Amino acid sequence: MEEGKKLIAITGIALGVFLGIKYLLPYVIPFFIAYVLVHVLNPVTEKIQRKLPWKKEVLISMLIVLFLGIFLLLFYFLSCALTQQIRKVAVNFEEYYRGFCQAVDQCCSLAEQSFGIRTADVKEFVYSSLDHATEQIRIYMIPGVVNYSMRYLKKLAEAGIFLLMLFISVILLMRDYDKMTQSLERYKSYRFVHRITERMWKQGGMYLKAQMILIGITIVLCAAGLWIFGNPYFLLLGIVIGLLDALPFIGTGTVLVPMALFQVFRGDYKLAAGYAGLFLLTYVVREYLEPRLIGAKLGVYPFVMVAVVYAGLYLYGPAGVFWGPVTLLTVIEIVREIYGTEDEKSEQKIEK
Fold first, then answer.
1. For the segment 19-47, what is each residue's pLDDT rounded down to a tens digit?
2. CB under 8 A, 24+ apart: contacts of 240-248
3. Does 6 map to a domain?
4. Is 326 exposed, middle or buried (0-12, 13-18, 19+ CB in 10 A)?
5. 99 Cβ partners below 8 Å, 6+ apart?
6. Left if phi > 0, otherwise alpha if psi is -120 to 50, otherwise beta: which for 288?
7. 3-state class of 267 per DSSP?
8. CA distance 279 to 222
9. Domain extent for 141
């Protein structure tokens, strides 16, 4: 009976967390991010304040402006390089299309020799699918870019308002952060939430930090390797491969292995070996660094994490890659706080 009640309670907690993230968080996201930034930057501002007796809100304003300036500068140079490489793709599209057709012809000939499949049937299927995709792009995507240009401008204006609200919130929250935390410490509900968020910050923050490091290393390795191989889109592909590698059910092989196979069909075995070697290098580096950076991770089996990311994509959309694990971690920590073992509760009393 007790197990049944506990199962119902956990189901209710999971539903409540999902509804909160899905429908409530979008309305308070600037203030949530502001709290996270203040929580992170508060120790830094305290250290600076020991040497420079300025107000915290002044110091954090300078830090935010500095970080924002560095970010915009890096974004400018990266966007220029990416734009140039994307322009190259558009200019050389016909050449790539012919190369793709040649690869298809070679694959069809190989399939006919190995399995007896008629080349004409395979070609008809592939080219009809490609023509259909091209037609859909021509009909829907291109007019959509023109028709919804005002909507994009509206989104840009909303982003500007969002950043302004975030900046103001950080300044105001930093000014009263210490007083607010001291006042809220008197309330049991705040201490309950604080213990949960502290554990989530420790585990989730460590996990996200490690993932960012791994993504950065993967992007650098892939971009450098592709540049050495003479790929003109080394930066664009390096960023795409690095982001894909962060997904638990995808990885660098999603792009590098097909690229290696494509070079095999072209007869460039040296370049194919290079792409395959780059895939092995990134795989080994991640397998070596991941346990050392993340340790025990979130205490969740990889299969469960894959299922959580998939469910997050279905429930939250593309952002579910991030919010799916966050939902799981939140539910785990709330359940742990409510139904924690006696040892955990005694440790909490000692900490108090």
1. 998 888 888 888 888 888 888 778 888 78
2. 241/282, 242/215, 242/216, 242/218, 243/215, 243/219, 245/214, 245/215, 245/218, 245/282, 245/286, 246/211, 246/214, 246/215, 246/321, 247/309, 247/321, 248/302, 248/305, 248/306, 248/309
3. no
4. buried
5. 266
6. alpha
7. coil
8. 9
9. 27-182
Q: Cα 187–188–192 angle (5° rounding)?
A: 125
Give DSSP secondary structure letters for 301-336.
-HHHHHHHHHHHHHHHGGGHHHHHHHHHHHHHHHHH
Number of Cβ within 10 Å of residue 126's Cβ equals: 16
Give the distance, in angstroms, between the CA of residue 323 and the centroid of all CA atoms in the same chain.
10
Predicted confidence at residue 342, as pLDDT, reads 45
Query: How many distinct structural domains can be found in the chain?
Result: 1
In a domain, 121, yes or no: yes
DSSP letter for each residue of 206-231: HHHHHHHHHHHHHHHHHHHHHHHTT-
206, 294 Cβ separation under 8 angstroms = yes
Secondary structure of residue 127 in the 3-state scheme = helix
Write the DSSP string, 5-16.
Answer: HHHHHHHHHHHH
Q: Please name the helix (run of DSSP H) or strand (run of DSSP E) that holds residue 246, with its range, or none.
A: none
d(CA 330, CA 13): 9
**Residue 38 CB neighbour total at 10 angstroms:** 21
Q: Give the mean pLDDT of 153-171.
A: 78
122-125-126 Cα angle (round to 5): 85
Dig out the tokens for 209 from the structure. Answer: 């930090």
User: Which ranges of 92-148 would DSSP assign to H, the alpha helix?
Assistant: 93-115, 119-136, 142-147
What is the Cα–Cα distance from 199 to 206, expressed in whole angstroms?
11
Residues 316 and 323: beta-carbon distance below 8 Å:
yes
Neighbours of 303 (CB within 10 A): 9
Do the Cβ atoms of 196 and 329 come closer than 8 Å?
no
Q: Residues 174-196: pLDDT tens digits? A: 877 878 888 888 888 888 888 88
